[in-house]
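Problem statement: downstream parser choked on a complex file, so we are re-checking the raw output for the zinc ion run. The parser issue turned out to be on our end (a line-ending mismatch), but while we're here, posting the original submission so the record is complete.
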Amino acid sequence: MSVNKKYRAREYLKESITMIRESNDILFRYPSSEHTNGRHTAYMARTSSGDVLVVDDVAQPLDRQAAQFLRTEFPFTAPVPVLGRDCTIGLGDRLGLAAPGHIAAIRNYQATPVLVQQSMRELNLTGRTWQDILDVGTFMTFREGYTDGFGADGDHLKQATDIGRVLSLGYTMVTLDCSEHIACDDGGDRVSSDVAGRYLGRAFGLDNGQNITLDRAQLARAVNIYGKALDFVADIWRMFWVNGAATADFELSIDETTQPTTPEQHFFIASELALRGVRMATLAPRFCGEFQKAVDYVGDIAQFEHEVDTHAAIARRFGYKLSVHSGSDKFCIFPLVSRYTRGRYHLKTAGTSWLEAMRLIARLQPQLYRQAHAWAVKHVQEARTYYYVSLDMARVPDLADLSDRDLPGLFDLDDARQLIHITYGVMLKNPTLRQALYRAWYDMDAQDNRPYADALSAHIGRHLEALGVLRKDEEKALK
Ligand SMILES: [Zn+2]
């Protein structure tokens, strides 16, 4: 099934934006969007035919040129590398509508957002482009007057061509997914004498008082599983960061595998990559337990606590931060992440903003919600090929049994949440449904009533509170 190209770009504002020569039909100005830099005065406004950028009294559509103009003239609308900051949060926005709510949530906290973050999988399923996503980040930071800096992450990239593409567009973070190079342990022993000499019989101290040691069997297993992946990572690093002199933050993701990363394997990976000159800003291990989309952590919390303590200390020893993927809604482990990383971590969320958008449809447009839900049910098998979830369709209520008033309550049920979470692609590939949903979100966003931004701000705010992120006016407590 191919994405209908007609709906590819700029739906976040209107299905089609007509050229506006005069600004006399402005319905309202976005209140925080007026900026001046000495050369130009600009603001964003809604007109009867769509949202526009008004520069020196001339209205123009929100297109690629307008975004480039803003990034040049108002540099706070361009992404910057942010992973060096203590608490950073990836806030993926599959619809291109979520940034105002994300910004409202985070602007009062001592945390920095990665507002532009999309994986290859999401890009294919939503039919958007790297450029579209970056431009939305620019327009939304300008519109909301958010000047504290944000990152742009090409998430879960597996191919050199994609990395080259996002870097050339100005993305400031690359998440390299080397899962295709992670092998199964075949039980063989390929430990060279060099590698043996580096690890066997040695103990490596961590700042939390623990020691890491690897015996021959552990070392052989680490080489078998990660050996090829390490070569791949080093090749990519050399290609773009050494030869290409890239300045983007580099995240290594080894989380999308079935086998958890043991602390000993984490140490081996970190140590071998450091030896090859690779400088990671963050690393995302595959933690023990399950990090399923849209639901809380499933697993042994005591074991997670023990391991996150060790993983965090290994990351500190090698000078990078831990990154926690599929991080939305993992409320029961948030305090542990923040405690053991000492407040220095990266947490990624993505689909939760889509769920909040659909919860709003369930509340405000029940008939449309019923259509979307029925489509999701019909196409759930296709969606399941993209995401691993424990979803049991027998536990998703039949909508025929629910009144309109009950519909938002679906978003408090794990199975219904997972159903809607994974079916964004099949919904957005249906042009009629896509257009109706975007129309609904666009129309509900008025000058003094922004239900989506409010809902998302409250939802992400709960994440920040559970993580214990300090508010901007709070002092860090003395340890
Ligand atoms: Zn991941």
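For whoever reads this later: Residues 156, 253, 255-256, 284, 325 surround zinc ion (CB under 6 Å).
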